[in-house]
Design brief:
Strand order of the largest sheet: 2-1-3-10-4-11
Number of helices: 12
Number of strands: 11
Radius of gyration: 24 Å
CATH superfamily of the largest domain: Bordetella uptake gene, domain 1
CATH topology of the largest domain: D-Maltodextrin-Binding Protein, domain 2
Structural class: alpha/beta
CATH class of the largest domain: Alpha Beta
Shape: globular
Amino acid sequence: MIKRFSWLKILMVVVCSLAMVATSIGTAKANTWQPRMPIEFIIPAGAGGGADVMARFIAPIISKHKLSPRPFVVINKSAGAGAEGFMYVKGQKGNPHVIIITLDNLFTTPLATGVPFNWKDMTPVCKLALDYFILWVHTSTPYKTAADYFEAVKKAPGKFVMGGTGAKQEDQVLTVLLEQTYGLKFNYVPFKGGGAVAVELVGKHIDSTVNNPSEAVSHMKNGTLRPLAVIDTKRIDLPDWKDVPTIKESTGIDTSYLMLRGIFMPPGVKPEELAFYVDVFKKVTETPEWKKYVSDMGLKDEFLHGDDYVKWLEGKDQEVRTLMTSGKLLKGQ
């Protein structure tokens, strides 16, 4: 009787142990989701701009370092100031094979156009970096500092043309900020993308831009465009950019505006699917290629995800909304 009871006890222990192993294996599988088909990597902006350049840089890194079993296929959906891309991702509810890289049109486009979209309609994945803005002029002009240029603009209100990406988008929002802060009046002219804006300045068809570093770096290095000031409270602490003064150093008045470079997924994705992309992009930012890219393109390397990312998005949303309201850039204003 005692012997039979001992065998029964051993059997129960074995069964329980097997059940625990099976549960552990199931949990492990649930936490290691991987894509089954190529991932659509949506860019809500035109070719040649900062978002386009970054997405097309990231996709090969993912393949090179085998961070995903399926490739990331870059697709531009830029119509309607990026609304095409955002509405597409919003409509892909539960689809883990679609992601989108974002810039500040994530906030500006719905406010300016009334398109039925909000960043909360998507799933935040991570913030990769923040992009600086720089005040640029052609090197053939006499302006050596932001103060020099602003003095000329003040003497001829509305004459100087500030080129930028899109109407009522981040470049125009920043132009409004400069006008309000320094008592200026520009003639703002929109173009399709940051690359096109830089080319217009190279061709002397406009007087200035607030291009991101990555959008004008090649023209700076060939001596065509001159960076007058970083529109932030601190200089860009990177080799190619550390000599560009802040706007306060030149004018005596401080102001700052930085742009998001982040990743989102459609609404309704599973936690394990979200975790896969957080891990992929975290590993991307740890590669030597990314470190060099950040340095060359003048980016502020700042990875963030989870609740901290959401909190940051909420603050940025309010900042953009306030600036657009004061600049009368909201739809219907």
